[in-house]
Structure formats: C-alpha cells, structure tokens
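Model the whole thing, not chain by chain.
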Amino acid sequence: MKLYNTLTRKKEEFVPLQEGKVSMYVCGPTVYNLIHIGNARPMIVFDTARRYMEYKGYQVNYVSNFTDVDDKIIAKSIEEGIPADQVSARYIEECKKDMEAMNVRPATVHPQATQEIQGMIDMIRTLEEKGYAYNVNGTVYFRTRKFQEYGKLSHKNLDDLRSGNRALQVTGEDQKEDPLDFVLWKPKKEGEPFWHAPWSDGRPGWHIECSEMAKKYLGEEIDIHAGGEDLIFPHHENEIAQSECCNGKPFARYWLHNAFLNIDNRKMSKSLGNFFTVREIGEKYDLQVLRFFMLSAHYRSPLNFSAEIMESSRNALERILTAAERLKELEQSAAGEKLLEGEQEKLQEMKAFREKFEEAMEDDLNTADAISAVFELVKFANTEAVPEGSREFAAALGKELSELCGILGLKTERKTEVLDQEIEEMIRQRQEARKAKDFARADAIRNELLEKGIILEDTREGVKWKRA
Ligand code: AMP
Ligand code: ZN
C-alpha cells in the first residue's frame, strides 16, 4: 500500500515497523463543544484507513486522544459556572455518540490529556536534563534551535518564520530565547485547573500531550501519525521535536494529513454563519450520508460542503442501498437455488470490481475511485441478477457489495428507523393541513407515518406518537 508522507512529500510504500502490525495515532478533538463537520473529516478518513488495513490483515493499534484541558474548555466552564472536567466529560460523551452515528469505530484507546499529566512531566524533565528545555519563572520552553531537524515536517523557511514571529511576539513572550520556542509547561492563572510540577503549579502545553500519549500507548517509534493539515505546523512539528529529542529515536514514520472541509467554498467559521455541527447534519440526514460524502473525495483534496452536494450524496448512497435490497429479495425469491449455467463465469467477472477497489485504496487511500468501483459493481448487479437467475448468485453479489461497502464503513442495510426530528416535522405539517381544513393531506401524512411504523394519537394535550 502506498501512502503520501508529508515528511518526505512522496507517496511511499507502507512498511510497518513490526510485520502484520500497525501503530497509528490520530489527533482528536478539543472537547469544549459538539464536534463540527470539519472535525468529522479526519475521524472518517482515518477510520477508513484503519478498516482497510484491518481488511488487509494488519492488527491495528489505533490511538486517538481527547484534548480535555485547554483555554476554550476553561472559558466554557467559567461561562457555565461548572468545573472544566464536567464540560469535557459532557462533550466526550456527545462526541462518542456522533462517532457511532457516523460508524466511526471507537479507537483501541482514547486517552485523555488530564489523565496523563505525570507522563508529560517526566518527558519535560528528560528534555530539561538533555538541555532541550529551559525554565523561565515557572514556564518551560522547548529550545528549538538545539534540534537541528526542526522544520523537517512542515518544510518551512525557519529564518523567515523567526523574523515574522519576532514582530508578532506578544508581551510576556520576550522571555523566550528564540521566537520559535514553544511552551511545554505553563503556570496556572487564577481559577484554572492545575497540577503540581517541579517548575510551577500549572498545566502542560498542547503539543507535549500528544507526544506523551503516543509514547505511552504506542511506543517511542510509531508507524503512522495523522490529523488535519492545519496541525502540520506547529503542532506536529513540535511533537516531532519533543519526542525525538526526549526518546532519541525517530518518532512517526508516516505522517498523514487530511485537507480541509469548506462550506460553500468558504472557510467554515462561526462568524461567517456557515458553521455546522455533526449533530445538526444528523437531524436532516442519516450520518451515513455524511460519511459517504466525506469519502467521495480523496482525503488530501479540499472538500466543499453544500446542501446540493449532500442531496446528491444521499441519492448516490440510495442507489447502493436499493441495489443491496434488491439482491436480498432475489436471494429469497430467484428461480434457481444453486448457480445456473453462466453464473460462475459472471462471478469471475465480478472479481474485477474488488481488484479495482483495492487498487484505488492501495494508491494512498483513494476512496473516490474505490467508490466508483462500488458503483460499477452496483450496475453489474442491477443487470446481471435477475428473477430467473439463482439465489446463490444473488447472494454472492450481495455479499460482495456489503463487504466492499463495509471496508469504507458504509452499511448496506437501509436504516428503517425514522428520526424523531422527521416525525415531529411531519406532525407539524399535518396540524397545519388540519387547520387549513385540508383533511385529505392530513390523512395522507398520517398514513405516510403509519407506513414508517409511527402511530399517531390525538389527545386532549395534543398529538402523541409512538413506534408500532
Ligand atoms: P481541533 O478540535 O480543532 O483540535 O480539531 C480536531 C481535528 O479536526 C484536527 O485533526 C483538525 O485538523 C481537524 N479539523 C478541524 N477543522 C477542520 C476542517 N474544517 N476540515 C478538516 N479537518 C478539520
Ligand atoms: Zn495532537
């Protein structure tokens, strides 16, 4: 399998450190709010990478953290008047619900920064002992100039950065030896969560968190480190500096970065009013549609989100589900039982789609082309599986379709359950129809709901509903 490595800027053949095993670290979200659809992109694409590697027979140790100590979490805790750990605990729970709805499997381990402070302190001490860290009034900085390879991931011109950063330096930072030095430990401010450490009562810098959690759960040298492209600099550059100087070993061998998700061709941001949480999208669509949409582009291509593209993703996914449903029916009802004449050859022909699928995934996880291969299989199944054929043939096609979709984390069974939100909306429309004395429409809506297994009851307190 070939993977594009940000470190070397090349597609490279993937060779794991240990045969048959993959260690993979994916930077997870800061939990101060519901996750947004941008956060969902690394979750979905790297979950798909994991599924594909498992399909190939690798045992994947997949670690993804929750950053649960951060300025934004503290701000939220002050705003709501509750402790910071309650804020993060709440959003970790919510994040896990969203992940499940997107069919993103839980990581092997989901470490939380606040549970790993001692390990971070130990790493910072080692860096200090080796001369890579210095303490100024309780703040500990990493000495970037001492690490000759600093900048190797982001391929940036460090001298330009240094002079640029000097101009931008904020007050209080002039105590740094070099503008590119970054914080490993910082003293607490009034009211902030803190831990005791040799330098001050305070908390770790963001970058050291991931270095420590990767080391603890995967080892000093790991196969793959991944995240969104915004993390290349400074986050991942700094992780490399800390880990390699502390451990005296190369850190991650392959660095994978997904491109950004934009909305209507603009950067997603709260102030532009084009900001969506996964939860909001889940009220309108089955989140499988969001997953399908994310995988319909290569993970290194920028991806544009819009209402139209979600509609076409829904329709495309629908074609797969319809084909799968039809194959299920034929598996029960087709004329023949065992393979009929000619069907064996057709099954040989079918193998071409899996080959195409694998070829795409082998080429730096090209899910867009892998999905095209799935559609070719759908087309083939729609023409070749017929009522006059055999049940065995329909079953073989159905199995193939569900296996290929499964590697992408797409379920081929149609979700029959309607969302509460949809039901409420239909009830509202029925009430409106009744008010307008359009009883035919009101009845039609009632019947439509009944078909979905929803029973309405008109009570004195209003309309109540239950699932049949
Ligand atoms: P954060 O909570 O901001 O640390 O982000 C968690 C993960 O989501 C990181 O891997 C980010 O790179 C990624 N991410 C954030 N915004 C976007 C976006 N608009 N498109 C793609 N990935 C994103
Ligand atoms: Zn990280």
